[in-house]
C-alpha cells in the first residue's frame, strides 16, 4: 500500500497511537500570543449559517426602512454666542466678588452648564409663552397637558399652569443641545423640533435670554449683596435683642445675682448664692447628728438584750439602789420570820408580799431607765434623718442652681456671639454702601439661528448603515453562539478536542452516486481513505495490525459495517488471512450482503449447533473469509456473556492473521463492551455529520469500564466544506487526481 496515497486521503499519516494527534495550523489563520484566529473556520461557519445570516440581514434592513419611514422629520437650528473671560469684581479690594478665573476651560464649561440649566429654560418658556402654545408641544411630538390629564394623575386642576410650565421646560431641555468646540469660545446652541421656524426661534430665544440673564446677574449682584446684608443685619439685630432679653429674664427667674467683676475682671460677671453656705452648715450639723446617733445606737445595742438589773444605767440609779436596799431589808426580815414560822403564817406572807412589791418596783424603774436609753437613740436617729433630708434637699437646690448657672453662661455666650456677628455685619454693610461697581457683559450673540431648509433626521443612509451593522453584529453573535454549543463531531479537530481519541482515518462523504460503487474504484477518494486507515492501523501499535479488531460506533447508521467490510478487503489485499465476523446479533447485515439469507454463523457456533469450519464462507476476494451472525438468538447478551466467545476468538486468532468483528452500537447494549473486552483493539466509527460528542463520549466510557483498548477513531461521511485547516484541501486534491485520471 502506498503510504503517500494514505497521506493524501487521511490528511497526514498518524504514528505512535499513544501520542496525541496535533492538528496542523491552517494556512488561513493568524496566530498570536494568547489567541488563534482561523479565517477559513470563520468562513465555513458563515457558509453553514448563510441562510440564517441572510434572513437576519434582510430583517434588519427592513426594520431600518420601517424606522426611517415612520420617523417624523426633525429640523435643527443653531445660534452661536461668544463667551469672553474677564474679571467680575463688584467691590474693589473686597473678597465677596468672584476673582478672575485662571482655568479657562472650567469657566467655559460652567457657562455651558448655565445654558443647559433648568432656570434658564424656565426663563425662556415664560418669556416666549411656550407652555400655552399647542404648536410647541405638537412640534416636539407631545400633547399639551389638559385638565383631564391632571385629573387622571390625581393632581389638582389649580396646578395646571405650573404643570404645563414644567412639561414645557422638560421638552425644551430634552431637545436642546449645547456644544463647545475645543480651542474656541464660541458656544453653539441648537434646538431640534418638527417645525423649522420654531427650532430657529427657540435657539435664538435661548441665546438672547442667556445674554440678558448674564447681564442682569452682573448688575444685580451688588444690589443683591446689599439687600442680603441688610436682611442679615436686621436679623442679627433682632437676634441680639432677644438674646439680651432672654439673659436678663433668665437671671431674674433663676434668682441669680449678677455682680460685675473687680479690677482685672471688671468686664466679667459672676453670680452670688447663699445655698452653698447653707449646704455647708447642714452638712456639719448632719455629721454631728450622725455621730450622736451612732453613740446612742451603740449605747442601746449594748443593753438591748441585757436583763434590767444588769444594765449599768439601772444599777447606777439612786432610786433603784434605794429599792434594792429596801428589798434586802425585807428579805432579811422574811428569812427571820421563816425561821420561826411556816410559810402560811401571816407575818411570813406579809413580808413575802412586800418583797414581791419591791421587785416589781425595781423592775419597773429599770425598764423605764432602759426605755429612756432606747428613746434617746430613736431621737438621735430621727434628728439625723431630718438633717440628712434637709442636706439632700439643699444639695438638689444647689445642683439646680449650678444647672441654672450653666444655662445662664450659655445664654450669655450666645448674646456675646450675636453681638460680635452684629458688629461684623454692620461693618460689612457700611463698606458695601460706600463702594459699589458693575462690570460690562462678557457674552455677545455672534450668529442668529435661521430656519433650516432640510431636516437633519431621519437620515436614510445612516439608518441603513446602522441597520446593516446591527444585523451583522447580531448574526455574528448568533453564529458564534451556535458554533460554541454545536455538539456535532464534524472535523478531525473535533475528534481530538471533543473526544480525546486519536484520529486514524478520514472517510469523505459521497456527494453524488452510490458509496458502494465508489468503493469498487480503488482510486476513488473513499477507497483511498480506507487505504490510509489501513496504513495508520499498521503503525498504531508496535504489533502492527491488531489480530482481533472490534469495529463499533456509539449509535446505528454511522458506517461501522461499511468500515468493517472495507477493512477486511484491504487487509486481505495485503496478503493477510482475514476473517470478517458479523457480531451484531440483533440487526445483522452480512448475510444480506452475501445474499445468503439462511447461512448459519456466530450464533450457531456459540450455541454449539455448528462448528467453525461449517459456518465459514469464503469470499471472492483472496485471503478473505466471512462469518454471518445467524440465526438470530432470543437473548444476544446472554449468549455473548458465556465463556464460549472468548474460546472462539482465541481459536480464530490461531487460524487467521486478522479477525474483524462488526459489533453492534455501544449505547443501550452490552454486546460491544463484551466483545471489546476480549479483543486486541477497538476502532470507534464516528459519523462526521451526525455524531454527537455526548453519545460518543458515553460509548468510550463504557468501553473503558471493561478495559477495552480503543486504538483510535475513524471519521466517516466527512464533509470537506464544513471544516478548515489542512483537511479543507482534501476535496480539491482528489478533484485534481480524478480529473487527471479521467483525462
Question: Any overview of this molecule?
Answer:
It is a single chain. The N terminus and C terminus are likely disordered. Helices cover 57% and strands 12% of the residues. It is an alpha/beta fold and 743 residues long. The protein has an eight-stranded mixed sheet with strand order 9-16-15-10-14-11-13-12, sandwiched between helices. A four-stranded antiparallel sheet has the order 4-5-3-8. The protein has a two-stranded antiparallel sheet with strand order 1-2. It has four domains: 51 residues; 162 residues, Bacterial polysaccharide co-polymerase-like, CATH 3.30.1890; 164 residues; 257 residues, Rossmann fold (3-Layer(aba) Sandwich), CATH 3.40.50. 30% of the residues are buried. The protein contains 26 helices and 16 strands.
Helix content: 55-70%
Tally of domains: 4
CATH class of the largest domain: Alpha Beta
At the fourth level of CATH, the homologous superfamily of the largest domain is: P-loop containing nucleotide triphosphate hydrolases
Which sequence of strands runs across the widest sheet? 9-16-15-10-14-11-13-12
Distance between the termini: 24 Å
* Largest pleated sheet: 8 strands, mixed
Tally the helices. Answer: 26
Number of strands: 16
Fraction of residues in β-strands:
5-15%
**Uncertain segments of ≥5 residues (pLDDT<50)?**
1-29, 87-101, 728-743
Radius of gyration, in angstroms, nearest whole number: 60 Å
CATH topology grouping of the largest domain? Rossmann fold
CATH A-level architecture of the largest domain: 3-Layer(aba) Sandwich
Average pLDDT over all residues:
78
Amino acid at each position: 500500500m502506498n503510504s503517500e496515497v494514505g497521506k493524501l486521503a487521511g490528511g497526514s499519516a498518524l504514528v505512535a497511537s499513544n501520542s496525541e494527534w496535533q492538528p496542523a495550523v491552517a494556512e488561513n489563520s493568524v496566530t498570536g500570543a494568547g489567541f488563534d484566529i482561523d479565517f477559513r473556520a470563520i468562513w465555513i461557519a458563515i457558509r453553514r449559517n448563510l441562510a440564517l445570516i441572510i434572513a437576519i440581514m434582510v430583517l434588519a434592513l427592513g426594520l431600518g426602512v420601517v424606522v426611517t419611514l415612520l420617523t417624523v422629520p426633525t429640523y435643527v437650528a443653531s445660534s452661536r454666542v461668544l463667551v469672553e473671560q474677564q474679571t467680575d469684581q463688584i467691590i474693589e479690594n473686597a473678597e465677596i466678588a468672584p476673582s478672575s478665573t485662571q482655568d479657562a476651560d472650567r469657566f467655559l464649561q460652567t457657562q455651558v452648564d448655565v445654558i443647559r440649566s433648568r432656570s434658564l429654560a424656565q426663563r425662556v418658556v415664560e418669556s416666549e409663552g411656550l407652555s400655552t402654545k399647542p404648536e410647541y408641544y405638537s412640534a416636539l411630538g407631545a400633547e399639551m397637558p389638559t385638565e383631564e390629564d391632571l385629573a387622571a394623575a390625581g393632581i389638582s386642576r389649580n396646578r395646571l399652569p405650573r404643570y404645563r410650565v414644567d412639561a414645557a421646560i422638560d421638552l425644551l431641555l430634552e431637545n436642546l443641545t449645547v456644544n463647545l468646540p475645543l480651542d474656541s469660545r464660541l458656544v453653539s446652541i441648537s434646538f431640534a423640533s418638527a417645525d423649522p421656524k420654531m427650532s430657529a426661534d427657540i435657539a435664538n430665544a435661548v441665546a438672547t435670554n442667556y445674554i440678558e440673564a448674564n447681564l442682569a446677574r452682573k448688575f444685580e449682584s451688588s444690589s443683591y449683596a446689599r439687600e442680603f446684608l441688610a436682611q442679615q443685619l436686621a436679623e442679627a439685630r433682632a437676634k441680639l435683642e432677644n438674646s439680651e432679653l432672654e439673659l436678663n429674664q433668665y437671671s431674674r427667674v433663676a434668682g441669680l445675682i449678677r455682680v460685675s467683676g473687680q479690677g482685672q475682671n471688671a468686664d466679667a460677671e459672676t453670680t452670688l448664692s447663699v445655698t452653698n453656705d447653707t449646704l455647708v452648715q447642714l452638712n456639719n450639723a448632719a455629721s454631728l447628728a450622725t455621730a450622736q446617733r451612732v453613740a446612742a445606737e451603740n449605747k442601746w445595742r449594748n443593753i438591748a438584750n441585757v436583763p434590767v438589773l444588769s444594765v449599768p444605767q439601772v444599777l447606777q440609779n439612786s432610786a433603784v439602789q434605794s429599792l434594792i436596799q429596801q428589798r434586802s431589808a425585807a428579805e432579811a426580815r422574811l428569812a427571820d420570820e421563816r425561821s420561826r414560822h411556816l410559810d402560811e403564817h401571816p407575818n411570813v406572807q406579809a413580808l413575802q408580799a412586800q418583797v414581791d412589791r419591791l421587785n416589781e418596783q425595781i423592775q419597773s424603774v429599770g425598764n423605764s431607765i432602759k426605755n429612756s436609753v432606747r428613746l434617746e437613740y430613736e431621737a438621735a436617729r430621727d434628728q439625723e434623718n431630718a438633717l440628712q433630708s434637709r442636706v439632700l434637699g439643699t444639695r438638689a437646690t444647689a445642683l439646680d442652681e449650678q444647672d441654672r448657672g450653666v444655662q445662664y453662661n450659655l445664654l450669655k455666650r450666645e448674646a456675646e456671639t450675636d453681638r460680635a456677628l452684629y458688629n461684623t455685619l454692620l461693618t460689612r454693610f457700611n463698606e458695601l454702601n460706600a463702594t459699589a461697581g458693575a462690570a460690562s457683559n462678557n457674552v455677545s450673540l455672534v450668529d442668529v439661528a435661521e430656519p433650516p431648509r432640510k431636516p437633519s433626521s431621519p437620515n436614510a443612509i445612516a439608518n441603513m448603515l446602522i441597520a446593516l451593522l446591527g444585523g451583522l453584529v447580531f448574526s455574528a453573535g448568533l453564529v458564534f453562539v451556535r458554533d460554541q454549543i454545536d455538539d456535532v463531531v464534524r472535523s478531525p479537530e473535533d475528534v481530538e478536542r471533543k473526544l480525546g481519541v486519536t484520529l486514524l482515518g478520514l472517510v469523505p462523504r459521497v456527494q453524488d452516486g452510490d458509496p458502494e460503487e465508489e468503493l469498487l474504484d480503488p482510486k476513488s477518494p473513499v477507497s483511498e481513505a480506507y487505504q490510509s486507515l489501513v496504513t495508520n492501523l499498521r503503525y498504531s501499535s508496535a504489533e502492527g495490525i491488531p489480530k482481533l479488531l472490534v469495529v463499533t460506533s456509539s449509535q446505528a447508521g454511522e458506517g461501522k459495517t461499511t468500515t468493517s467490510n472495507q477493512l477486511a478487503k484491504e487487509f486481505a489485499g495485503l496478503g493477510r488471512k482475514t476473517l470478517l465476523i458479523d457480531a451484531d446479533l440483533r440487526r445483522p447485515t452480512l448475510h444480506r450482503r452475501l445474499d445468503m439469507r439462511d447461512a448459519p454463523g456466530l450464533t450457531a457456533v456459540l450455541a454449539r449447533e455448528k462448528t467453525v469450519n461449517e459456518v465459514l464462507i469464503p469470499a471472492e476476494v483472496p485471503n478473505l473469509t466471512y462469518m454471518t451472525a445467524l440465526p438470530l438468538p432470543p437473548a444476544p447478551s446472554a449468549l455473548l456473556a458465556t465463556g464460549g466467545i472468548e474460546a472462539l476468538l482465541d481459536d480464530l486468532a490461531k487460524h487467521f492473521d486478522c479477525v474483524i468483528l462488526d459489533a453492534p452500537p455501544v449505547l443501550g447494549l452490552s454486546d460491544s463492551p463484551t466483545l471489546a473486552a476480549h479483543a486486541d483493539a477497538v476502532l470507534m466509527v464516528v459519523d462526521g455529520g451526525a455524531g454527537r460528542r455526548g453519545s460518543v463520549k458515553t460509548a468510550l466510557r463504557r468501553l473503558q469500564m471493561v478495559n477495552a483498548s480503543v486504538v483510535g477513531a475513524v471519521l466517516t461521511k466527512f464533509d470537506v466544506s464544513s471544516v478548515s485547516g489542512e483537511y479543507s484541501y482534501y476535496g480539491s486534491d482528489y478533484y485534481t487526481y480524478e480529473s487527471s485520471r479521467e483525462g
